[in-house]
Design goal:
The complex is a heterodimer of chains A (522) and B (520). Chain A is of the alpha+beta class and 522 residues long. In chain A, 23% of the residues lie in helices and 37% in strands. Chain A has ten helices and 24 strands. In chain A, the strands form five sheets. In chain A, strands 1, 2, 3, 4, 5, 6 and 7 form a seven-stranded mixed β-sheet that branches. Chain A has a six-stranded mixed β-sheet with strand order 13-12-11-16-23-22. The chains are: A alpha+beta (522), B alpha+beta (520).
Amino acid sequence: MPERITVEMLDAMRPKLGALVTGQANKLPGLQYCDLRIEVREEKGAAAENGQEKASAEDYAFDFGVRVIAGARNSAAGYYGRVLGAADAANIESVVWDGIQQAHQRARASARMKSMARRRFSELGESLVAASLAPVPIAQDTVPAAYTIDPRNVSLVEAMKLAVEGCKLVQAQSSNIGYCAATTSTFLLRELFLSSQGADIDQSFAQTEGFAIAICGSPHGNYDIYDSTGHQRGWELLTQGYRQGPIVLPNFMDFCRNLGATAAEVAAAPPLKPPDKEVVVVTDPHFNTLLVHEVVGHPSELDRALKYETSYAGRSWFLKDLHDNQLGKQIASPLVSAFSDPTMEGYGSFKYDHEGTPARRAYIIRNGVLEEFLNNRQTAAIMGVAPNGSARATEAHLIPLIRMTNTIFAPGQQAPQRIISEVEDGYYVAGHRTPSIAESRENFRITAVKVYEIKNGQLGRLYRDGGITSDTRDYFMSIDAVGNDLRVNPIPNCGKGQPMQAKRMSNGGPTMRGVARLTGPG
Amino acid sequence: MQSLAALKAATKEALAYVAAQPGVSEAEVFAASNGNLTARLNYTSHIPSTGVEEPKSIESYGLGIRAAFRTPQGLAVGFGSEPNDLSLEGTRRALDKARQGAVRDPEFVSLPKPTGERPTLTGKYHDPAIMRLSNPRLVESGWRMVEKALETFQSSEDLLNLAGSRQGLRDLGLILGGDVVLLQERMAIASTHMPKVQADESTMVMSFATAMVESQAAKGSGWSVGRTLAGFTGDSAAQAARQAIAAVGGQRAASGRYRVILGPQALDEIMEWILMPGLHLSTFYAGASPFMGKLGRTIAGEQLNIYDDGAAPDLAGSKAVTDEGLPTGRTDLIKDGVLTGLLSDYYNTQRILRDAKGREKLGVDPASASQAIAPRNGFRPGNGGGRNFESTPGTTPTNLVIQGRRGYSTQELLRLVGDGIYIGRIWYTYPVNGISAGDFSGTIVGDSYIIKDGRLAAPVKPNTLRMNDNVLRVINNILGIGSQRRGTVRWSSDQITWAPEVAVADFQLEEISEYMERVY
């Protein structure tokens, strides 16, 4: 048994598991397709509360997941996932083989029952089809992680020191901040993707993240605010910050200082009393980070659009059915473009997704016209389009879902100061807080950290507990200015699936101006 | 799955080993084995689909060790775990991780010690049939739900009349989504403070189904929760289909303040996301509850009673012992409108007892409220449920029970409302201005009706009304609470809320998304 699980251990496993998937699995009765994802994560983290040490840990994660498509005419998919330990390293082939067999049994059983259902429900059964995957280029590739300070070389003492100091810095911003918590974490992840079609992809990622929450007392009621910073980089992200193109992330001390100062400033501000009419709103890049996530990214996920998430995560107003949908239609102002691009730098970057599909930019909205959904191989086959590499799982033992990657509003031409200065009477909505989105994403309410009055082109009084609400298309169509100040921010916890998977990705946008109703307390 | 005997033996052996190691002041060993077997469903009559889309499982087992270590700087406490190894080698690895990560937390008092309460849920209450579930049986449970929904759709005269022919049924856009989730849970725990190994074994089967007649914008839900495979019928899918058919012809309602009835799912969502976080002791510690300083005071209408009971013999969310080795039991949270208790785990109870601001935070001396803040809810839920050896305990509800001082029938509640809205299912209901403010927003997505003259008059069209209200106002505007409670299922969780229908006055609704009437 190895003394510790390391990412390097996958070197020895890779050829053996490849042979299992391309050789032995292909001999299983009726097997049409099999893929295996196996990963090792070496991680460290620390947590502090009110400037006191709370917990720290150095550990590994080692797990795998299998998908098999099997059966005769009505083939079906079966899955199996398992958490692994050091004790499994020596006999990994037999452990994985057991998983493949279990997934295969499920696939065959499901294919049989699908055939029975098709026979039993003659009309309604016609839409039950074989599980099929759109073709993708079969890749063999190795993709290294990008980092300066290797997450494995960070000491727990250092991780804890940063969490404690960050926490203290939050609280130092105001004596009214009665509670603060901060966490730091960093890991090196290595993923293997092996398929019966011959894919053999080895990708590594470094990821580092910081989080802080502050609760600040106020005559207007206690105010809580939290935020995360993170990127696919090493520990240097927290110690030095990161600045590259649209990604501008402060170091963790500055991040915490800003959060504490914001908590104190906003807590003391009066609650917004929203006017009972639509108003001009200028939204900043941080607010638009959540806006694009909720009302562009999510409805562009093709599993939602094809009704697969009807029960939980919701559908999409972009698509009623394969023939009647918004593709090619104007759903936003011509100034609005949005895309998802895992090939650009961000928290959702990769070269291949978890189906082995090469990553590429997908234009969701171009010049206001809906152009493309984010898909996986199965939904791409249903739509008759090419896969665009959007299938990702949070961990290998979980099933890949269609996910945003780096999904952003494209920048425009105007300086943000100009966009504000043109507003005679309106509001500046800065920083995202909490969303509540309608089921098919056709309406939204998103609260902001700060709402300022704009009078005669100047920012005026600051309010707390404000936000905006609108019907999505009306808001998109009202956009009349798009700034040149694109910022891309991390979103560390997007929930989807059953059991729910919390996925990291990037979202962002520039300053934008539109028309919406303001929301306040109550 | 590892056997309970194997977990117990490993726990005993591991504790003996850990307690004997140099520098160990106190220690706790938690061993668990979990299975989450899920079949996700996706049937669409108008789009190619595969019926049972994801028959899958996640398995894990291992040891988690919490230990306090004597160091020159004082006591340091740490946690470590090791998957898939119940041997002494696994124990050694987990202990090494706990030692390596140990920190000096000045608020740490001790690992859990007996509280004086005794377990009341005894005997076996799991289902061996779920523990040994085969792959074909997992798949069959999913297909059973698909077939129940298709039977209901196919046999509906109303749908046939709408479609004009059997072939035309497909064009109505019939949808079934959802899942069946079967949980297998085994755990054992022992510590230097409670060296006798305690063990527990539980199973659960939950289903949730959403059906639609999409061309008619009609949606319905069905769900079930139980402990045994024999009790799972798949009828939740038929119920969802029936509800969807009944919702054909949905209407819009204008913005305004309404008298409403919150159905069990709607009430559960508001409880889960908006109210319950404010009833955790840890939220009081942080100063984020809307009820700061109000323990023992009236916070809601006098009809409202809420308690959590992890030891109720007849409720599916019960467990004999917490993941801290302490007895589960009943904690009254709100009694006749008065805040009477808070959910807690051992760590949070201990630290509020020593918090210099404890009296200010609770409104009473914490020491005088020991029963109200007893640690009956220290669990280690995994993703989607289970008892996760890889994490430390936190506060988690078990069976959350909501009941009125007097139980009303549905008909009585409808008469109380007169003219208003029955809100059956809501979605994405979040505390938009933070937990302490109590403000929430969400949308009505199905199972909802316009109430006229004390009767259900017409379905509400899904996704056309947004709730914008405050939970403090809601719990103080209660008109009546139903006598029938239903176990409700939460997304990716094994916590169960036993929720009745509740009539509420002055509930703010906003009409939304009118443009969608012209989009398709």
